[in-house]
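Q: What changes when 6-O-phosphono-alpha-D-glucopyranose is included in the input?
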Amino acid sequence: MASGLWNDLKGQVPKMKSAHLRSLMQDQARNDSMFVQNGPMVLDYCRQKVDSETMSKLFELADKTGVEQRKAKMFAGERINQTEGRAVLHPALRAPRSASVCLDGENVVPEVWKVLDAMKAFSDKVRSGEWKGFTGKALTDVVCIGIGGSYLGVEFVYEALKTDPEAAAAAQGRKLRFLANVDPIDVQRALEGLNAETTLVVIISKTFTTAETMLNAKTVKAWLVKELGSADCVAKHVVACSTALDKTQAFGIDSNNVFGFWDWVGGRFSVWSAVGVLALSLQYGFGIVNQFLEGGHAMDEHFQKAPAKENLPLIIGLLDVWNCSMLGHEGVAILPYCQALVRFVPHIQQLDMESNGKRVQMDGSEVPVETGAINFGEPGTNGQHSFYQLMHQGRVIPSHFIGFANSQNPVELPGEAVSNHDELMSNFFAQPDALALGKTAEELKADGIPEKLVAHKTFPGDRPSLSLLLPVCNAHWLGQLLALYEHRTAVQGWLWDINSFDQWGVELGKVLAKEVRGYLTQARKGAADDSKFLSPTKKLLAKYLE
Ligand SMILES: O=P(O)(O)OC[C@H]1O[C@H](O)[C@H](O)[C@@H](O)[C@@H]1O
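A: The predicted holo structure follows.
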């Protein structure tokens, strides 16, 4: 994309840098225009360093970069992941049974529902105890083995629903564990207290070649065989979710116990496929997982149909690009005021940073502006007692505040002025204003703060944020929230003209690890050639082997 496209927007930067949020926010009409609703979901972005002219320029940028057309191509199943020659059709995974989503002229929805139906039937059988383990016992516990996109989204949704009353009731007596890291300590942690007789292992890997997953799968298979005394136990205790059916078979998994998906499902968008649906259905029942899928679909509809000025993923994507590429902010803090979202940010980190951590455009030329912000965060209020100090008085980090009108676990104590949830949410409302307005030296002096402390207690303010308010953290709204963040990531990629759907940057480390692995194999046998390593690496390797 020509750098000229950005010039018009660049013209907005000096004006917006010099306008403090304190004055920008005095314009009520401006603020009102930045309060956007999608049903009961609210986005308030008046605490962003933009005015109506900047927003028009941003919407113009979306027009000029063809966001609408690119979006249409994605939903139409075109191979927009050009470097891998693949379509990007994860929305088809959450489309209703009656929908039609075509790839090369063929509707993929019936295939999607065939696997969903099979997962419903299988999870119903396991949950009811009809499916029995090798020694005749019901399988009450599940260990998911997978990493990256084959792990983070599943764990995020599992954690988020753990305290949802309906999901918690459905999960009574069941356990779900995750094994991702190749660190053998993680095996110990994942299996701790589990009985092989009642444990089902779900191996999740799109490619079924990922080194960590394959080694962990072998390790846990060996545990099962040792505990249950026969290799025949695998048929009853191991299932897989993968696109590589030949490889799952080679691993010894009965093809009836493999739940497939397709190459048009990117790893970091795959929680909606067998990757997430199987394990989550085993834990919570398919009905609840279906509510999650329906939530995702509702957001797809919004993203496709809502006009630009009301389109939540588009607006958030535009603001994130504005902050990163024009105002030069390197990070974005994602701050859910909801403990159930404890694993949301790690998932969004992979989703956004693996997608948009790129430096070249579709044609291979360098992007003329900065791309891919560092996404990080923690649930509030915990973060407030940690890195918020830096956000208030150190670096400027644009933030996303995410809150819910209702708690999964409402608590009201007699004698307390507010409910526990209102106490939490008081912070959700206060922090964005504290960041935006700050506190001036004059205000501090008027408060009687001693002169020598004034500088230390001054808050510059003018720190941008946006607030998202949703009704409650349940399966439906989790689906909406995640699909919103997926589309936000895609919008940014389209504005930058990068391919958000490949991930070549993860390859080099894997190749080098293979060389080290080969060297360690030889070295453990006594003879090894370390000549291909850098001398500092040789030195460190020698120390490790010593
Ligand atoms: O699902 P798998 O094929 O095992 O891949 C697991 C993960 O590893 C890769 O290296 C990519 O970085 C991720 O996008 C992917 O989700």
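Observations recorded in class: The first strand starts at residue 35 and ends at 38.
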